[in-house]
Amino acid sequence: MQLKNIFVEGAIAPLFISDSITKHATKTNIGAHNIFLGQVRADSVDNKQVIGIEYTSNQPMALECMQAIREQIFEKYDLTCMHVYHSLGKVAVGELCLFVFTSSKHRATAINACTECVEKIKAELPIWGKEIFEDESYQWKENK
Amino acid sequence: MQLKNIFVEGAIAPLFISDSITKHATKTNIGAHNIFLGQVRADSVDNKQVIGIEYTSNQPMALECMQAIREQIFEKYDLTCMHVYHSLGKVAVGELCLFVFTSSKHRATAINACTECVEKIKAELPIWGKEIFEDESYQWKENK
Amino acid sequence: MDIEILFFGQLTDISGCPSVKIENPGSTEAVKEWLCKQYPGLVGAKFVMALNNQLIVVPQKITEPSIIACMPPFSGG
Amino acid sequence: MDIEILFFGQLTDISGCPSVKIENPGSTEAVKEWLCKQYPGLVGAKFVMALNNQLIVVPQKITEPSIIACMPPFSGG
After folding, report:
1. What Å distances lie between residue B100 and B33, C18, C66, D35, D63, CA to CA?
2. Which 3 state secondary structure label does DSSP give B99?
3. Contact B112/B120 with Cβ under 8 angstroms?
4. Which of B109, C63, D30, D38 is the most buried if burial means most Cβ atoms within 10 Å?
5. Is the peptide bond before D18 cis (omega within 30 degrees of 0)?
6. What are phi and psi of D13, to 5 degrees?
7. Searching chain D, which residue's CA lies closest to the CA of residue A139?
8. Where residue D66 falls among pLDDT bands split at 50, 70, 90?
9. C59 vs B: CB within 8 A
10. Which are the contacts of B5, defined by CB distance < 8 A and separation ≥ 6?
11. Spatial separation of the C-alpha atoms in residues B2 and C24, rounded to whole Å
């Protein structure tokens, strides 16, 4: 089976998001979309500011995990479609690193599926973020 | 006090959504965005297909209600910002009629605030949708 | 002075117009009575009324100028 | 035949490299032992291992060719 790619080199562009939305105009059984976007925050640690995050992943495993998550979500929720994109490499502060997009006939389905998918992505996908500071030092990000 | 307008004539364009997203790149304390989009569905009623919805509103009252909803949401959730747009007039099947956009430091805040805002918009704003069929007959929409 | 009564959604199918101006009958109850006489189709209809953008929960006196909105169940979004 | 061991995230700071190839020591337990001897910094480190993209929950035998991934807590999104 061909695994669906979710990785994008660098930041996710807002125009990529509007293109994705536009593509759903022909799916006239959709009544609700929910979109989650992760944006890189300028956190401060010991008076040093984060200027970006560099993402790496165990890609083949991440794509297999994502496929399993996708199957679980589609089994649980009556979705029309679901799209997931995650950045790899450097993403600057203020740029987007995660894009999860669910569509359904009714709003509760789209919203709950999207939220559950985001939680699973954060907990289960082998992806790591390295927070880069202005002085080029770094620390490894930790999800809470 | 100046009431914020939420009404857009006709459908909400995907490019308007990407522009909105782009404007948040400078707000570097944001870590999560949640977006809800309502799309007009090609429902069938007695073998007739909906081709669009025509929205009308008691506008001054809707804007006052929305202002009150906004205040409730900001009191309850630690949001960076919230934007709401709703169509007036005709919106064709497959086009977008509602755009709710919340941003926050952390994901749960943005997601919960967005969901609550959508529920309140549907329940409390004096807006009516007239479902237009292909033969130009119509029926008034009912929210569930 | 007159007061203005606005109709929305499916109520405009009953009233046949978006608004009417009438002489102030003094109270929200009196307005409702007048409406049901003038537009018999409103008698069984489900709708709420707002006085100057505030939902009417208990009967109220009406001072001029005032706007009364007659609104069927909302269906935005 | 050799097996390949991959390091991710902060573990690469300890290993100093993204991957090593070693002779198959036969089991996932033996790999872990070898790793802790070779890279003492891994001893206290929090990480999970995957054998051919499957998380290792109970000790397993390793057949070649195999890839072992050493992964610290995930921090995607």
Report:
1. 10, 29, 32, 50, 53
2. strand
3. no
4. B109
5. no
6. -70, -30
7. D10
8. very high
9. no
10. B63
11. 30
Residue indicated by tokens 């992760």: A38
What share of chain C in percent tops pLDDT 70? 99
Q: Considering CB atoms only, which of A58, A118, A121 is closest to D69?
A: A58
Report CB contact under 8 Å: A34, B35. Answer: yes
Q: C76 pLDDT exceeds 90?
A: yes
Q: What are the tokens at A18? A: 């509007």
CATH number at residue D23: 3.10.20.30
As a whole number, mean pLDDT of residues A41-51 equals 94
- Our measurement of the distance from residue C48's CA atom to the centroid of its chain's CA atoms, rounded to an integer in Å, reads 8
A119-144 pLDDT, tens digit per residue, is 999 999 999 999 999 999 999 998 87
Contacts with B40 from chain A: Cβ below 8 Å: 31
For D1-12, how does the pLDDT look when each residue is reduced to its tens digit (9 = 90+)? 799 999 999 999
Neighbours of chain D (3+ CB pairs under 8 A): A
Which pLDDT belongs to residue A1? 66
CB atoms within 10 A of CB C21: 9
A100 touches chain D (CB under 8 A): no
- The interface pTM score, or ipTM, of the predicted complex is 0.95
Question: How do the domains of chain A map onto residue ranges?
Answer: 7-21+31-140
Average the pLDDT over A89-116 and give the result: 98
The whole-model pTM stands at: 0.96
Q: How many domains does chain D have?
A: 1
Contact at 8 Å (CB) between D36 and D14? Answer: no
Res B1 pLDDT > 70 = no
Q: Which architecture characterizes domain A7-21+31-140 according to CATH?
A: Alpha-Beta Complex (3.90)
